[in-house]
Amino acid sequence: MNNKTALLNTFKVPAIILFGIVLYVALELLKQNTPAVIIAILVTILGSYRLFKETFLNLLKKRFALDYIAILAIVVSLITKEYLVASILALMISSGRTLEDYGVAQAKKSLTKLAERIPSEVILWEIPSNGTGARAGAKITIGKVKIGDFVLIRKGEVIGLDGILESEAGLTDESSLTGEPYTIEKIKGDSIRSGTINIGDPIVIKITKVQADSTYNKIIDMVKKAQDEKSPLVRMADKYSGIFTLVTLIITGFSYIYSGFDLTRALAVLAIATPCPLIIATPIALLGGVNSASKKHIIVKKLASIEILSRTQALIFDKTGTITLGKPRVLEFKNSAKNYTDKELLAIAESIERNSLHPLAKAIVNFAKEKNANVIHAEKIQEKVGVGISGTVNGEKYTLSKLKSADGMAIEILENNKSIGIFRFEDEIKQDSKNIITNLKKAGFQIFIFTGDKKEAADKVAAQLGRDVIVKAECAPEDKQKGIHELKKQGKITAMVGDGINDAPALALADVGMVFSNEEQTAASEAADIVFLGGNFSLVLDSLNIAKKTIYIAKQSIFWGIGISVLGMVLASFGLIPPIGGAFIQEAIDVAVIINALRASR
């Protein structure tokens, strides 16, 4: 179904109501009064059925709703026998709801594309029971694939499920997860993540996670939760709707008394107040902000974080992988093993670290390739984030873990708990870190760096970022959390930016947690409110700008909508606007604020 057809189907009910109004007017002109009244009542029921149903359900849940004004307007129009007004109100209500639905769908459009990337079916790779030979089998719905199944991925296909590479070699594009346009070489036994693309020859993978638990599905779940959540700004709109309803009833009562108890005058006021842009524009603007963020590889997990981020005062950054590139290179490699050459030890380290997404692991893998170390296979890989990674090579167990050194940038490799080698690294700040930090300081944000590195390393980075950057070094996870707690006690609205599991407690405590993540199932991603796919530091500034723009547009829609509606009600109370004119004016207001709210998607 193309966009034009979908749009026509969306507006089917308003189109039927409009035809009914035309028929009503024609019958009135022909003085066919009784059929005209019947048609008007049917049109009113068709257009307001959803309104009455939702209001009734809200009453059962003891929720206040601005729709009471719309119901009152329809009832008054029928009592006063203003059937044309009732029909137009029905058209207005129906088209307003339809526009709202269409607006929300448009705001969610790019988010929906996330789910559409994953294929709905996969090709099973059948291995005969005698173990000899193999062939492509039938297609199967991706939701029916089980752990342990073998799946064939053709060249150019998006990989729909997580697994282990069974083919001898493969080539994948992981930019959809990392935001970085790099191709990753894989060998048999390496992990394959859903959402990546097979850009090499056809491969076979053994499934390790069902669809619900897959890496890419976690991203989609984040988006769905954001779409379903009600933010503080929406609740703020609900608060204003109560005030607006009271103002409407006061103006309606005044007009009724001032006009000598003329219900028609009161109807004109009610028509302009029905429905209100408060409950239409705000969620569209917020979802538009989520949509705009997703286009830049920013996943907003909670709608509330958009509103809070727009009011943030203090920004707290982790250092490694956040302000720095997070792509350290090996500065020194020391082999203290007597029974391994440098290339043999590098091959062992590379075979294990190839299965990790840690920046230091990637540095070891790249260093091993530069030194032309052999590519071998490791088994029984176990990674404990924040501690290290271990694996078995040729029956021997090896562990790579962080070494306590002067600046914390060192990894040692152990064989049976005995140190046999050390890697030392260096890192550098991202190219745009200094400029962006400078812009953030100019915008009035307080900048903090909370890092687990030694003070010397932290001060070296801070010096490159200019003055007024407050550094807290040698922080354990609980120290970062305490630091944020102190800032919150001072009344500051905080946003924490990190990239690792050691940042998870601070990310959870901050008013808004933002994380750079290449692996969407880490504790850091789970604790954060906003996830950056990739390591581009400018995403921090982008997210702040999107939040401010989104909230500005939402408030603009609220206050302009209220202002114009109140002005129209005052004019109607003095008899300057008839009921029909009031209905058309409010419809124009609703359309205008919806169009304005959709600007947040850009």
Give an overview of the whole structure:
The chain is α+β, with helices and mostly antiparallel strands and 602 residues long. The chain folds into four domains: 3-110 and 222-226 and 233-287 and 548-601, no CATH class; 119-157 and 161-213, Calcium-transporting ATPase, cytoplasmic transduction domain A; 298-325 and 430-535, Rossmann fold (3-Layer(aba) Sandwich), CATH 3.40.50.1000; 329-426, Calcium-transporting ATPase, cytoplasmic domain N (3-Layer(aba) Sandwich). Helix content is 50%, strand content 18%. The chain is built from 21 helices and 22 strands. Strands 10-22-21-20-11-18-19 form a seven-stranded mixed beta sheet, with helices on both faces. It has a six-stranded antiparallel beta sheet with strand order 2-1-3-9-4-7, with no helix packed on it. Strands 12-17-16-15-14-13 form a six-stranded antiparallel beta sheet, covered by helices on one side. Helix 3 packs antiparallel against helix 4 and helix 4 runs antiparallel to helix 5. It starts with a helix and ends in a 5-residue tail after the last helix. The mean pLDDT is 80.
List the keywords.
602 residues; alpha+beta; Calcium-transporting ATPase, cytoplasmic transduction domain A; Rossmann fold; 4 domains; seven-stranded mixed β-sheet; 50% helix
